Amino acid sequence: MTDAPPAATAPGRAPADPPPYFRAHVFVCCNRRPEGHRRGSCAARGSEDLRDYMKVRAKELGRRDVRVNMAGCLDRCEFGPTMVIYPEGVWYSPKTREDVDEILQAHLVAGGRATRLMLTERDVPPPKKA
């Protein structure tokens, strides 16, 4: 495992909380909707392969303190594939393996951000019709 700040200093953590089992969780949307759905789906855009690749690369990079998980719908379908990294709550939209490598290196190895791939407060789905 890599060094992480003491658990009690992380935002939202209480001194009596047990230490985190993982330093970071990556949730990759792998939701699949029917073909032709108006919002599309991350799985139809290749998220499952990107998740599998990210899991392998994280291990190759020695990131045993990072867990890459499959998620159901993260509700940002129009920007898919999408992923979110916690505890920071930073959202990304990787399209290629090279994008995944950039996120791994910038965010999970160096502790920065892959700003080119980030989804921000400006990236919101269109309003749902009643």
Quick structural gist:
With 130 residues, this protein is of the alpha+beta class. It has helices spanning 47-60, 97-109; strands at residues 24-29, 66-71, 83-86, 90-92, 118-119.
Describe this structure in words.
By secondary structure, the protein is α+β, with helices and mostly antiparallel strands. It is built from two helices and five strands; from the N terminus they run βαβββαβ. The chain has a five-stranded mixed β-sheet, covered by helices on one side.
Question: Could you list some keywords that capture this structure?
Answer:
about 20% helix; 5-stranded mixed beta sheet; disordered N terminus; about 130 residues; about 15% strand; globular; alpha+beta
Indicate the topology.
Blueprint: E1 24-29, H1 47-60, E2 66-71, E3 83-86, E4 90-92, H2 97-109, E5 118-119
Parallel strand pairs: 1-2
Antiparallel strand pairs: 1-3, 3-4, 4-5
